[in-house]
C-alpha cells in the first residue's frame, strides 16, 4: 500500500526495468562493498594544490569506474546518520533530528535486510563507539549480521577520534575475507563508514603530506590534508582488494556523506581561482562524489546527470538483478530512471535543467531558480511544478517514517 500511495502521487521512481537492459542483473551474486566517506566533497576531486593532486587515488580509480560529479547529499540535522539512512532506505531523512535516534524501531525497506533475504552475509564497519548515532540498535534492526565497532579493531594507528582510516579499511577487509571463507560461496554486503576526515580536520603533522600554501594553518587547509590522507587510505584499500582476490568479485560504491561545515565562500574562491555565485556555492556545499566500480569495469565514464544518496539502494539492486518495485523507495535507479529528480532536505531540488533553492520563509516566489545551462537565475515559474513535487515527496517520506507506514501497511504474511 505504501508503494501504491506513492505511485498515486507520482512519487514512485525506483522502478525496475520492464524490458531487459544490459546492466540489469549484470552483476548478480557479486559482493557489494559500500564506503561512506566522512565529509568527502566533490569540489576538490581532480584538483591540485601547489602542483600536487589532492585525491590522486580517487582520480586513478575514476578511469575504470562510473563517476558522478552531480551526486547530492540529502542530509539534514542527522548528518552522517542521515547519509546512512537515506542511502540504505531510499527515503529522506527527517526535517529535525535523526531517524536513527527518533524512530529506530520503525520498519524500513533497507538494503542490508533485502540483501540478507537474498542470501547475502551482511556487515557494517565503523571504528567508533557502537552507541554513537544509536547505530548498535539501528544496525540490528536493519538486518546486519555483524556490526564491527571500535572495540572490534586493533588500535594500531591512533588518529583523530579513533583508529586511522588506513588501518580501519585494512582490518575491515581482513574481516570480510575471513567471513567469506567461513560462509562458503555466499556473497557479502559490507558497509564501511570512515572517520579520519572529521571536523575540525586537525591531523598530526607527520600525516600531512600536502603543501597547502596560503591555506596553511587554516581549517580549509587542514580539510585538504585530511581528504588527501583518506584518498591514500582508499588507494590502499583498492590494492588490498586486488591482492586478496576480492576486486573482480565485488561492486565498489564510494560516496561522501555530507559537507565539511566550512561555509566561508572566500576559501573556495581562492582555491578554485574564480568568483562564485549562489548556485556555485549551493552545489559546492551539497555535491559529494559518487564512484561505482563494477567487477568487469564495463560500466565507466562520467555521468553528468543529477543523482543523490536516495538512489543508492535502487541502483545497487538494479545491478544485482533484484526487483525494487515491491519496496517503498523514492530514489532514482541510476541505471534506468530518466529523467532524474533529486530533492534536498532543504526543499531545494534539481531535474538536471534547473536548480531551485527555497527561501527561509518558504514562499515559493521568494525562492531562486537557476538555469543549469547558463548558470544564471531564471524565471522562478519554471520551478513551480517541481517545487510542488519536491514538497510532496518530502512530506510523504516524513509520514512514512513518523507513522511507521511500511510496517502498518504491509500485509501480514
Ligand atoms: C561518528 C561519525 C561522525 O561515529 O559518524 O558523525 P557526524 O558528526 O559527522 O554526523
Automatic annotation (TrEMBL):
Family classification: Belongs to the LTA synthase family.
Pathway: Cell wall biogenesis; lipoteichoic acid biosynthesis
Taxonomic source organism: Paenibacillus shirakamiensis
Principal subcellular localization: membrane
Keywords: Cell membrane, Membrane, Transmembrane, Transmembrane helix
Compartments it resides in: Cell membrane
Membrane topology recorded in Swiss-Prot or TrEMBL: Multi-pass membrane protein
Recorded coiled-coil stretches: none
Keyword field contains Cell membrane: yes
UniProt key word Acyltransferase: no
Name recorded for this polypeptide: Phosphoglycerol transferase MdoB-like AlkP superfamily enzyme
Domain Sulfatase N-terminal: 30-322
